[in-house]
Each structure stands twice: as C-alpha cells, then as structure tokens.
Design brief:
With 324 residues, the protein is an alpha/beta fold. It has 2 domains: 11-139 and 243-323, 3-Layer(aba) Sandwich (Rossmann fold); 142-241, no CATH class. It is built from 10 helices and 8 strands. Strands 1-2-4-3-5-6-7-8 form an 8-stranded mixed β-sheet, sandwiched between helices. Helix 1 (86-99) crosses helix 2 (112-123), helix 4 runs antiparallel to helix 6 (189-207) and helix 5 (176-184) packs across helix 7.
C-alpha cells in the first residue's frame, strides 16, 4: 500500500539561532520531543524549508528538526551571500546539533540537501545515526553543466531552455550561468527579480513528471523564495560549489559504515541518476532505491511513498540498535 504524507502538525518550538558572521538561522521542532532526532536539509542552495518536509516522519517516533540554511528563507539576513559556503553550512549544522543537546541524529535531505548531508557526515561521522537522502547531487561540474548548458537537460526541454536563456540574451561573452549570476547580483533590482523567477521556473519545469500549475508560483512569498534560490544557487555554481572536484567520493570512506537509504527518481532531470549510482558503488552501507515513475520533486507520489517507508525503516533500525 502506498504511503502518503503524515498530517500537518504544529511546531512546538521555533527560534532564530545566532551562528556568527551576522547570520541568524530559523530553526523549528515538531513531533515527539523525546523521539529520534532527525534533521531535514532543504535543497537549493537557498531553497528554504517547507512545512511538508516534516510530514515525511512519524511524529510519534521522531523529534523533527527543520531549519533554513544561512542567507535564505526565514533566516536573517535573507537573501545573503556573505560568508555563505558549504563549509559555513556544515559548521552551522554542528552548532545546531550542540545547541539542541543532541548526541547523534538521523540526517536527511533532498537535492542540494544531500550534498550538505554528505559533507557534514564526512566531517562529523560520529554525530550520525544514519542517512535518508533523495535526489543525489555531488556538487560536480558535470552536474551543474547538465542544468545550465545547452547540451544537458536543454536537449529534453528545448523550448523551456530558450525561454530560460532569454533573460541573459543581451549579456555577451559569458555562459548562461555567469550571465544569471551577474544579473542576480547586479544593481538592477527589477532585472534581478525577473531573472530569479525565470531561474526557478526552469528548474520547476524539470522537477516532476506531472505538469505544474501556475498557481504553484503565485503565493505571496514566492518572489522572496525565488530570489533566495536563484541568487544563492548561482553564487554556489559559479564558484564550483566551493568544493574540490570529486571531493565527496574521495572522502566517502569516512561514512562507509553508516547506514543510508538513497531514493532517486528514474526520470530525474535536475539531478540525473548516474550520480546516485556512482555514490553507492563507493558506499557499501548505502542502499539505492530507484523510483521507476518519479522525477526530482520530493512530493511526487512514489517519492513520498519511498521516503515515508524509509523513515519507518530507519526508526525501527535505530530502535533495534539502541536495545543492543
């Protein structure tokens, strides 16, 4: 029987945590305060958390922690590129764990959140109970070239790619990615807002097998979320994600004994499946579940079913380990 998201539940605690460098992170907790601690890492970079992310987890079994990474969402200031690299985000995550008095936690996330989860685990393996990761992104040049060069995802969505590139058509002698970054960080705020909407629409169109309704990008907060996502993502990608090429796979031995369930849509057009397949070849404790009728979105039916079941599997495994 296919699983659905757990009912929407209230947050029992929220706060803004000062992590230095002028940044305050929005953090919320829900579920069982005495349950298994799980943190969900949102995508992007710069995407922000969603109330639906907490609905992957049984609120009776889990103490569910969501937060907005520095510079985006409800964190302050937002959007902000200042002192915003994976190294800062990994350090922030460890500050949160210690602030919440958590000895070890289950680390989960989607898309860019998987990159951050892996980097965090590589540096702090002793803090990890396990991983649930959806839509693997390893932060390599090939992966963001797939998204923003004409020979990648554009070959499947040529009309959408033409529309995407129109925003930077008048910027000469630079790549599409560099052109977007220049507009998004430039002095023309109107142009930056238009570019951010085009950036997010391009990814949204690639994210799911089911067509999106225009209503999905009409909520009041959408312009701010789009600007955070586009500005921070382009900042990361023009800087090669601030990590060395192949760094994650080269360091995967640090977490080789930590159990992981990896979910990846067969038809993921944002983060192609080969990255997940390559990852599990290097990670003996990771189990890859290919979702045969899913794309990249975390909220397609098969992805919801797979994630909720993975969360239950991990809860049972962690409970058994604690008894032993």
């Amino acid at each position: 029987m296919s699983r659905v998201l757990f009912p929407n539940i209230a947050v029992y605690h929220q706060e803004w945590l000062d992590v230095g460098d002028g940044h305050q992170l929005y953090i919320e907790q829900s579920g069982n305060p005495n349950g298994i601690a799980v943190v969900y890492l949102h995508g992007g970079p710069g995407g922000g958390s969603s109330k639906n992310h907490r609905r992957y987890f049984d609120p009776e079994k889990y103490r569910i922690i969501l937060f907005d990474q520095r510079g985006c969402g409800r964190s302050k200031p937002s959007p902000s590129l200042n002192d915003n690299t994976p190294h800062h985000l990994v350090a922030d995550l460890e500050v949160i764990r210690k602030h919440l008095s958590i000895s070890r936690w289950l680390v989960s996330g989607g898309s860019w959140g998987t990159t951050l989860a892996l980097l965090y685990g590589i540096k702090y393996p002793q803090a990890i109970l396990g991983f649930i990761l959806r839509g693997i992104f390893l932060g390599t040049k090939a992966e963001y070239n797939w998204l923003y060069n004409a020979s990648g995802a554009a070959s499947f969505f040529p009309e959408y790619y033409r529309e995407f590139t129109e925003q930077v058509a008048n910027i000469n002698n630079v790549s599409v990615l560099q052109g977007y970054y220049d507009v998004l960080t430039g002095p023309n705020e109107i142009a930056a807002i238009a570019a951010s909407k085009a950036w997010c629409l391009w990814e949204l169109r690639l994210s799911t097998l089911a067509p999106h309704s225009p209503a999905e990008i009409q909520d009041d907060d959408y312009p701010h979320r789009a600007l955070c996502m586009a500005k921070i993502s382009s900042h990361y990608f023009v800087n090669h994600c601030f990590i060395d090429e192949g760094e994650i796979l080269a360091s995967i031995d640090n977490i080789k004994d930590i159990p992981a369930i990896i979910l990846h849509g067969r038809y993921d057009m944002v983060c192609p499946l080969h990255s997940a397949d390559k990852l599990v070849q290097h990670w003996p404790s990771a189990q890859l579940q290919i979702l045969p009728q899913a794309g990249h979105s975390g909220f397609e039916l098969q992805t919801i079913d797979g994630f909720c079941k993975a969360a239950d599997t991990m809860a049972n495994f962690i409970a058994e380990q604690s008894v032993e």
